[in-house]
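User: Before I run my own analysis I want an independent prediction to cross-check against. Here's the chain; please return only the structure tokens and, at the end, one sentence I can use as a sanity check.
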Amino acid sequence: MKSLKKAIIFDAGALITLSMNGLTNELVKLRKIFNGSFLITQQVKSEVIDKPLTIKNFELEALRTKKLLDDGILELADSFEFDNSQIDAKAREIMGIANSFFQSPRESVNIMHMGEASCLALSKMLSEKKIKSLIVIDERTTRMLIEKPNNLEELLSRKLHINIKTVKKNFEYFKNFQVIRTAELMYVAWKKGLIEIKDGILLLDALLYALKFKGCSISQEEIEEIKRMK
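Assistant: Structure tokens:
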């Protein structure tokens, strides 16, 4: 079994965001200085490589991500002997829990999909082996479930334009997951001087707003907060 010290797990949306913003080279540079592995699940691979390769609109982005996998920048979890059927089963369990919290007037509200759930499943399996991990996820709903679950009812009501009620309030299951966005990841790349353009705070501003407008759920206030961290 290959040794695994720590890991950053990538959701499909985060990889798409990086590809759409032309930041895959920066991901390669980050991997070279990270004392751990960049992991994806088979479920995420299906979302960002396998399915998009069959759709002309998304073929180029899929090829970019496939190259990251072919070059060993991204690695599949099962290459470290994490059984995909176990990840799949755990992901379905997590997805079932997450999708039972909120109710519309007609039905339960699905707030998590299989790719995201598989990332959480892998993180939980790593934690059981005492291996630290971060999940890179740009989608707001899953991040809020982990970080600010009590605010989700209002967010979902606004997003879906219908009255949403919380039917289960025990969010403890999700509190120990650690998540970041591509915005924080690229802040690290900027801080370490890994971006080819060298324009100081103007470059950081450009990076964060580019990510905001192409995939990353981040507010202007959060961008300004990151910029103050310089």
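Sanity check: The first strand starts at residue 6 and ends at 10.
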